[in-house]
């Protein structure tokens, strides 16, 4: 037996241990404070979330590490010692804007000079734009300082010197403050329990939770914010967020991360996965000496997908063993799409109703209604035409005579996150709905009118299939009516005899 992560209590590969019913589409995550993106619904397996126990471990390990290792920085000192929340917010705001695109070591001296010249927001509001530009000289990106100045004037004049008390208010009121800066100021200066996500946090989370989806995809962005909001320590949100960022900047670095001294090592999927790979390689070497058993034993190596259809797992073909944990995060790489072909059968009874079957309660597209379909392998695709009668008869109890009357409608393509699905659509008219059944894997079946189908829970792909059927039937109706109108003269068009009779009348 392969000594996999399974035996060490790792979460990898959870497809074996976790029911797919635990998966959540990303749209179900807490929406609190997430960026205004509208992610497509994706299947996110449990590997990419934290359990309550893991959250507790993460907080205590990370904060203990931060307490022992953090850098002493002037804005951190103000945030920790200044009793006035508006003064704290002001200092953290200045530091966060300076830190955008500028290194910490450069920012320190600029920050100290700035704070001794304009220690409060009122002081800054009274400065001229020329003065603040001058003080900013060398930091670049001057739009940042213009917005700082504009914001200071706004806080003093409109908000009477008081900073908004939470993330949403900061984002709304302060020019140049987006989701990241708003979260940083709210948590570090004002103690609001909201997470932050920057490049460092993205990298840490992608590795710790094995997130193999493109880091810039809206679905991933939304998931990262949901995770950050979930794991932030309510007692010490500012320290927690700074610890996550500091860990990314000093330990979980883009290249050569220091995994051996990382406080999150025990929770890290990337670390476990690269550990698995190392063990797997040594096992392969071992088995190369015993070739007969090699195939059998290596086949017990767990697959990489955490649950069937998970969009967040890094696919086997995308995993580069030489990179180890640096396989995460995935940047701009498109997940390789698998090609799949499925035969979809529209069974229509005499009154025009169609048979719909309901998918199982768990897994991909759980409980949605769909037209019955049969997955085609390369081989069955070849033989589909020959065997369709038998298959439809066997699977759905359709009479052989009905099954033989099928018509091919069209090929419909639908792209799921990593599947390029082709539906080969057929239509079969059944003389009687009695006797028609469906395979056990479905929850049930129902004959539906077009309207009932459109108002029930169905996938976009199935709606596309219906559209294709209607388009095809519309075309054939058009053809028929064109043909019949070509055969029969229109009202305006005169027959030859009418033409001559008209002429004669003249
Ligand atoms: S164990 Fe390594 S990869 Fe995982 S979070 Fe720590 S430094 Fe990053
Ligand atoms: Zn997964």
Automatic annotation (TrEMBL):
EC number(s) reported in the record: 3.2.2.31
Cofactor: [4Fe-4S] cluster
GO CC annotations, alphabetized: nucleus
HhH-GPD domain mapped to chain residues: 98-250
SMART domains with a match to the protein in the record: ENDO3c
Gene3D superfamilies (alphabetical): Helix-hairpin-Helix base-excision DNA repair enzymes (C-terminal), Hypothetical protein, domain 2, Nucleoside Triphosphate Pyrophosphohydrolase
Record note on cofactor: Binds 1 [4Fe-4S] cluster.
Catalytic activities: Hydrolyzes free adenine bases from 7,8-dihydro-8-oxoguanine:adenine mismatched double-stranded DNA, leaving an apurinic site
The UniProt record lists the keyword Ion transport: no
Keyword Iron-sulfur: yes
Ranges for region Disordered: 470-506
One annotated GO molecular function: 8-oxo-7,8-dihydroguanine DNA N-glycosylase activity
Keywords: 4Fe-4S, DNA damage, DNA repair, Glycosidase, Hydrolase, Iron, Iron-sulfur, Metal-binding
Bias-annotated ranges (Polar residues): 495-506
Gene Ontology biological process: base-excision repair; mismatch repair
Enzyme kind, highest EC tier: hydrolase
Entries under SUPFAM superfamilies matching the protein: DNA-glycosylase, Nudix
InterPro entries in the cross-refs: DNA_glycosylase, Endonuclease-III-like_CS2, HhH-GPD_domain, HhH_base_excis_C, MIG/MutY, MutY_C, NUDIX_hydrolase-like_dom_sf
General function of this protein: Adenine glycosylase active on G-A mispairs.
Family that this chain belongs to: Belongs to the Nth/MutY family.
PANTHER family associated with the record: ADENINE DNA GLYCOSYLASE
Protein name: Adenine DNA glycosylase
């Amino acid at each position: 037996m392969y000594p996999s992560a399974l035996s060490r209590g790792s979460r990898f590969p959870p497809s074996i241990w976790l029911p797919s019913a635990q998966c959540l589409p990303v749209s179900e995550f807490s929406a609190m404070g997430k960026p205004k993106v509208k992610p497509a619904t994706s299947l996110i397996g449990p590997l990419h979330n934290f359990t309550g126990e893991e959250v507790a471990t993460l907080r205590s390990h990370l904060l203990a590490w931060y307490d022992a290792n953090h850098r002493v920085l002037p804005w951190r000192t103000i945030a920790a010692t200044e009793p006035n929340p508006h003064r704290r917010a002001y200092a953290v705001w200045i530091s966060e804007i300076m830190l955008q695109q500028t290194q910490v070591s450069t920012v320190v001296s600029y920050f100290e000079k700035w704070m001794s010249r304009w220690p409060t927001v009122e002081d800054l509001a009274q400065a001229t734009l020329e003065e603040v530009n001058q003080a900013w000289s060398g930091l670049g990106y001057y739009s940042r300082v213009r917005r700082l100045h504009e914001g200071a004037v706004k806080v003093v004049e409109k908000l009477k010197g008081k900073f908004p008390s939470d993330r949403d208010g900061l984002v709304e009121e302060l020019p140049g403050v987006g989701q990241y800066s708003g979260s940083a100021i709210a948590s570090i200066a004002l103690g609001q329990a909201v997470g932050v996500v920057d490049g460092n946090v993205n990298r840490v989370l992608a590795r710790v939770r094995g997130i193999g989806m493109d880091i810039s995809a809206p679905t991933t962005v939304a998931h990262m914010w949901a995770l950050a909001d979930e794991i932030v320590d309510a007692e010490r949100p500012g320290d927690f967020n700074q610890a996550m960022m500091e860990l990314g900047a000093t330990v979980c670095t883009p290249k050569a991360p220091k995994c051996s001294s990382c406080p999150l090592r025990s929770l890290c999927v990337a670390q476990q996965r690269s550990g698995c790979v190392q063990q797997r390689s040594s096992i392969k070497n071992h088995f190369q000496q015993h070739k007969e058993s090699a195939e059998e034993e290596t086949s017990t190596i767990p697959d990489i997908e955490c649950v069937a259809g998970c969009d967040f797992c890094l696919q086997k073909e995308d995993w580069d063993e030489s990179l180890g944990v640096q396989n995460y995060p995935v940047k701009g790489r498109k997940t390789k799409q698998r090609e799949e072909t499925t035969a979809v059968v529209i069974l229509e009874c005499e009154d025009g109703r169609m048979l719909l079957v309901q998918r199982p309660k768990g897994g991909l597209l759980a409980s949605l209604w769909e037209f019955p379909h049969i997955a085609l392998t390369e081989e069955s695709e070849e033989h589909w035409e020959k065997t369709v009668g038998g298959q439809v008869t066997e699977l759905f109890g359709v009479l052989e005579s009905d099954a033989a009357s099928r018509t091919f409608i069209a090929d419909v393509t639908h792209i799921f996150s990593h599947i390029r699905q082709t539906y080969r659509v057929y239509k079969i008219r059944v003389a009687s709905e009695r006797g028609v059944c469906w395979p056990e894997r479905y929850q049930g079946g129902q004959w539906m009118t077009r309207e009932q189908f459109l108002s029930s829970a169905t996938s976009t792909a199935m709606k596309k299939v219906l559209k294709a059927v209607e388009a095809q039937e519309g075309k054939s109706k058009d053809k028929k009516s064109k043909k019949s109108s070509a055969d029969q003269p229109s009202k305006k068009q005169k027959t030859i005899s009418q033409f001559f009779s008209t002429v004669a009348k003249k």
